[in-house]
């Protein structure tokens, strides 16, 4: 079986696993108050170029999104997201469970734009309407596209003009930062937003994400919020240990090598499928690609390949999602291509 | 000043006021457990043709919508509404405050359709997405249009097919039922939905709405829900007294006369404005009409007439909302028409 | 039948009703943005001696308590209340519905003390425990007792020392302020707390309470909070009209006369019952008294008198609650005493 | 440094770690829909003797408690817990964050009793009070005590009589089941309650708990609830893998050996401290013991030993908590005893 269904189908990258093994018998404080978490946080402060940012080691992406949003808003405030954005699309209403509306906008290439912010804003009038206060985006988006430096800057400016906080879900941030199309550095991203997270689960960790809060107001009593939102891990150091292993070496660290590798594997696949004349659902330069394939091919491909059907059938074709990760080998790519060529 | 801003700018219809005065010194049980509420409920059971439906005397429309929805849903379930629907548009996120998403759809003439339900349903996949469970509509809609018997029947069938509850906000239900374009009786409406409310505030009461629940499962411990959602009035009998006065005489009662009068006033206005060549924002047969007027005229009209600008300026014209009510006199209509003619 | 069950069994005091009748045909802005609400607010600013306090005309006591608390707290903060306090005891969890814990303490004579605050505070440790932030009390308490000036001052100082907001539920505030045992003025009360409400429903109004917020931070976007908590009345002016009628004349106004009358009626009753050797459940100087009567007497008294059994039977006796109000006549008191004497 | 602060200061038991290493490169479905989770669930169904119970692999104890409670209750329902119970005491209001009250009772030896349930029930009257619906206890309790078979049976019967669900937090369930004082089997426990969890974090796992739901009504759409409460782990198999390793061999499995070892270590410590004449805060037969030590001794002991001060100083003595775990060695116990003897 060839695995292209997700970037979280295997355990941890062997170097991350090794760090967990090495530290296993240590005794530390619980709940993330240990030296591993402290060092990992410092590494992140250095990487983002902001020694004053606050870093929290979080169990997963949903706890990041929900806790950050719940901590940022007053009860009558709302969120703006693309309809395909993770907070809206794939959290089972966990954000609304904290009492806040998400205004869902039809994104463009999976992205929000300043014009879409203005459009969402039109729903706001006065005390009869919730007050938009936070814009939630993903980098890369759920369909693999990325915000360019110019796009992110324009969005950030629109947010500041409208008194909106900007939050970036970075579940696959490594892939955005290391893809060839990218022109936005981590430091620049950090400066343009109020908070974001550096995803571990989908980039070599067993689990865990590093939430970076640059806006001190949001960080007030944030650990109380993490606990209240069910996200405080007893052996919190596990996340710190993993991020130490992932980020050792800074810009030359395993974290970026893993992401780069995943992008490269996807890039080879994309190139070969393009040569075969196969169209794509989105113009993704990162580790998720969405070829649109004939229905019979998709059905037959299922026998040997694990993948996700992304959208409903249209004109006898279906967009599927192929995801690469640290464990994807060049031979997996070639085997997949061989299988597709045979079925075309 | 001419008042066309809302149908709740005056107090109660004099007959309703008289009933409050007559009963003022009575001693009764609190919280709606009195004979006035009981009698009003029975009158409503008779009017709807369902002796088993449950009726609750509610303080206002928001408490109706929010309590009904919160009582109907499990935590992971969501609501489908038109983006212009009251639950989404004008409740300051009070529904989301109870932890539920509203999937906002672009309505057609302010209405939901079976196709829009199917479209909303596409957001649902599995445990990663909230489960749609209730469709919330208004009759008439916020832009004055009404669901025909065929439309309501189709919507109801789609809901049953999808295991969706159907709830109807009837803030101006009297105007829907009594307008010339209507072909849907109160009994038919009741049979097609799980719950609805008969609006009092906008049809002659000081305040108060009668919430009718036909689905017994929703009604379980409903009084606990009303209290928890801040909606249980100490002197609950006040609402019962008002509905007794409004509904005495059944289909010939004050409630329908008031609504009919408001419709007739709006109808005269609509006809005359149409003759003047003025276009409308919606094809409303009820007591709210939305003429699209030139911007300078709107500005000047403000000096003598109170009204609401409904949507942003477009091509130098603005849709305004003119609302008629029990207190609107034919002379008010003529004065308004004179004012508009003068400014055209 | 003699009515001593509650102070909300009748409609409005005739002078309040008259004000509603007089203003009934006026056209005004909705949602409390009218001149009646404005004037009533100014009257209250003057009465409290704080021209900068914010006044909101609220539909009822539960909306006051819940909206005020929800607007005051961050998600991880909690409330301290007596176990018999209204927010805890009789709101069906409406406060917890907004996501906050109430730490319920066994009050002393229905009251909280600085020591009880300290005791509640012991539940607080760190990010694993909610942070107490607001103390909720009633003046008078649910068992009719009142905080003396010294007690309220001590509580207020403890709150400020602990960074706790102090909120006073004044459903029967008139009776506290006008009872003989009272030594705390309205101005002093206002200065000692962050917010309180002046109850209308139980002191002559059809419905409505005036919520007074002295702490500007709590008042931020408060109207959004009222709407979100289902408490914004369309014809909001109704509450303003009633408070104008109640408060016209300031300290000599109907509001205080009504309260004084209720206290006087209760006082006569208390004196006569004491003479009969009947003990009381609480030492209440206000309009609720709690004689402890033999079970057979209570059962027989029910035939002619409406009242509430307050606590479970103990030693063959039951404490009952007798409540007086603006409509209670001296003849009612005499008839009740006659009935009790006959049964003793 | 000697570590007696918690049973989660180290990583995983080496055999659990080994299982994670062995399975690390496998590709599996995400979110707990894999064979490891399936097998672990089956092992638990067998252990509990209930092939129909539903098992969910959860990230931690707070997600277990909060998700189970939120899934069990209607909005107006409440929970009964000891004031020292984990749901009340150490979850930062995470339960109340889902909108439900916890009625906090002063437990006896950290335990609830049928009488305390009756007492809590007295707070319930009618639609003005939340309806108690779930009793939340821990086995062992937060102070190490355990419910005997007779006590648990009596509690369970009281719950069924009152239509209350019974939920057992089993963060340290292994220690309860394997301690010498215990007379309640896992199967019996399962039959007496509606849901419970088998704690992994504090008994050899890196993280993870197995939530067992015997009441099918609670299990309805439970995976939606887990996701909504932020508790669905992407690489959910990690928890399954660990429980497979822990439970392989059933009643002879590592899980019970670990717990037994921790109990034995605590037992030696308890015996020796008793011989030294040191009193205890609770009569705990499990892996947490609470000797009450002189303040100066506690201060000096801190230099070499890590532990938690449990309660405030009283009569110049402080109860401290000493916790043993799978990693506690007999030499650690002897070293601790030596340190204490030296300071006495």
Describe this protein's structure.
4 copies of one chain form a homotetramer. With 344 residues, the first copy, chain A, is an alpha/beta fold. Helix content of chain A is 40%, strand content 16%. In chain A, strand 5, helix 6 and strand 6 form a beta-alpha-beta unit. In chain A, helix 1 packs across helix 11 (237-247). The longest helix of chain A is centred in the C-terminal third of the chain and has 22 residues, at 254-275. Chains in contact: A-B, A-C, A-D, B-C, B-D, C-D. Chains B and C meet through helix 1, helix 3 and helix 10 of B and helix 1, helix 3 and helix 10 of C.
Architecture blueprint of SSEs:
The structure is a homotetramer of 344-residue chains.
Chain A: E1 2-3, H1 14-23, H2 35-48, E2 54-58, H3 61-72, E3 77-82, H4 86-89, E4 102-105, H5 114-121, E5 131-138, H6 149-161, E6 165-169, H7 173-178, H8 186-192, E7 195-199, E8 209-213, H9 216-219, H10 222-228, H11 237-247, H12 254-275, E9 288-289, E10 292-294, H13 295-301, E11 305-306, E12 308-309, E13 317-323, H14 330-343
Parallel strand pairs in A: 1-11, 3-4, 3-5, 5-6, 6-7
Antiparallel strand pairs in A: 2-8, 7-8, 9-13, 10-13, 12-13
Helix pairs in contact in A: 1-11, 2-11, 12-14
Greatest interface = A-D, 51 and 51 residues
Give the oligomer, counting copies of the same chain as homo and different chains as hetero. homotetramer
Task: Categorize the overall geometry of chain A.
Answer: globular
Strand order of the largest sheet of chain A: 2-8-7-6-5-3-4
Distance between the termini of chain A: 19 Å
Helix and strand element order of chain A: EHHEHEHEHEHEHHEEHHHHEEHEEEH
State the helicity of chain A in percent bands.
Answer: 40-55%
The main sheet of chain A comes to:
7 strands, mixed
β-sheet strand percentage of chain A = 15-25%
Tell me how many strands of chain A there are. 13
What is the count of helical runs of chain A?
A: 14
Which residue ranges of chain A are poorly predicted, with pLDDT under 50 across at least 5 consecutive positions?
A: none
Radius of gyration of chain A: 20 Å
Helix/strand-derived category of chain A reads alpha/beta
Average pLDDT value of chain A?
A: 97
């Amino acid at each position: 079986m060839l695995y292209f269904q997700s970037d979280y189908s295997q355990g941890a990258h062997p170097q991350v696993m090794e760090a967990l093994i090495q530290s296993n018998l240590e005794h530390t404080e619980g709940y993330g108050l240990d030296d591993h978490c402290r060092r990992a946080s410092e590494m992140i402060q250095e990487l983002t170029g902001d020694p004053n940012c606050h870093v929290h080691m979080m169990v997963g992406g949903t706890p990041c999104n929900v806790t950050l949003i719940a901590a940022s808003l007053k009860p009558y405030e709302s969120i703006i997201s693309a309809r395909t954005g993770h907070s809206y699309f794939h959290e089972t209403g966990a954000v609304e469970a904290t009492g806040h509306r998400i205004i869902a906008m039809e994104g463009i290439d999976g992205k929000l734009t300043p014009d879409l912010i203005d459009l969402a804003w039109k729903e706001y009038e006065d005390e009869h309407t919730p007050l938009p206060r936070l814009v939630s985006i993903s980098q890369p988006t759920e369909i693999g596209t990325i915000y360019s430096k110019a796009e992110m800057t324009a969005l950030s400016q629109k947010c500041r003009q409208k008194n909106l906080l900007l939050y970036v879900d970075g579940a696959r941030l490594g892939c955005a930062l290391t893809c060839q199309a990218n022109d936005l550095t981590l430091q620049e991203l950090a400066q343009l937003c109020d908070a974001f997270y550096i995803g571990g689960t989908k980039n070599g960790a067993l689990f865990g994400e590093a939430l970076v809060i640059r806006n001190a107001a949001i960080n007030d009593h944030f650990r109380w919020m993490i606990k209240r939102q069910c996200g405080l891990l007893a052996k919190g150091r596990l996340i710190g240990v993993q991020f130490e292993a992932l980020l050792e070496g800074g810009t030359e660290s395993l974290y970026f090598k893993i992401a780069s590798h995943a992008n490269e594997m996807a890039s080879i696949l994309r190139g070969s499928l393009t040569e075969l004349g196969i169209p794509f659902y989105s113009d993704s330069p990162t580790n998720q690609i969405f070829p649109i394939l004939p229905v019979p091919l998709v059905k037959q491909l299922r026998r040997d390949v694990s993948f996700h059907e992304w959208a409903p059938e249209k004109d006898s074709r279906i967009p599927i999602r192929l995801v690469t990760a640290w464990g994807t080998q060049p031979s997996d790519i070639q085997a997949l291509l061989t299988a597709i060529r045979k079925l075309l």
